[in-house]
Amino acid sequence: MMTEVEKLDAGLEYSFWDKEVNARKQHAMRETAILNAIDPTDEDAIAAQLRKLFGSCGEDPWVGPGFHCDNGLNIHVGDRFLTNYNVTILDIAPVRMGNDVMIGPNTCIITVNHPLSPKGRRNHLGIAKPITIGNDVWIGAQCTILPGVTIGNNVVVAAGAVVTKDVPDNCIVGGVPARILREIEDDTKD
Questions:
Q1: Any idea which residues carry the catalytic annotation?
Q2: Could you tell me the strand order of the sheet in which 14-15 lies?
């Protein structure tokens, strides 16, 4: 019989009320409290704490005050990762981001979902799906990225968008639910 953590890690329905599952969140809350107490101008201290909190971290990471996550170790970011204020990443499942990702204030990246059934919710069930975000992505203010989404390279997510499905490379998406507004050129190639 699988433990609830084993179910969670296998992508199966699990109980978020489980003590081992909850221990991950408690660890993340302790580490983010330390992070959020650091002087926001002390970039070296912020980077050091992010390397302790995240599963992997590239060069020059920075997060603004008010950052929160559910695990931390499931967050993997590339070089020059930047978030503005009050960003939340519910990383029950892995969240992988490429290089040069910028995330606007009050954005939520959410890998966890719950049953529509009241009985399932009463039983504290959750199911998590990973999120992947490519290189050179700008996620505007107050966006929501839902479980299982992959966002391609060179994408702009307009402020207030709710991304419910995969986004291809080289485009701007916006709205609720987000849809492609227009294509954009990838000017990073010589």
A1: 114
A2: 14-15, 125-128, 112-113
CA distance 67 to 64: 7
Write down the pTM of the prediction: 0.94
Which domains are assigned to the chain? 4-183 (2.160.10.10)
* pLDDT tens digits, 42-93: 999 999 999 999 999 999 999 999 999 999 999 999 999 999 999 999 999 9
In angstroms, the CA 186 to CA 182 distance is 13
pLDDT at 190: 64
Dihedral pair phi/psi, residue 187, rounded to 5°:
-95, 15
Beta bridge partners of 125: 15
Q: Distance between CA 79 and CA 98 in Å, rounded? A: 7
Rounded Cα distance, 40 and 19, in Å: 33
Report angle CA 89, 95, 101 to the nearest 5 degrees: 80
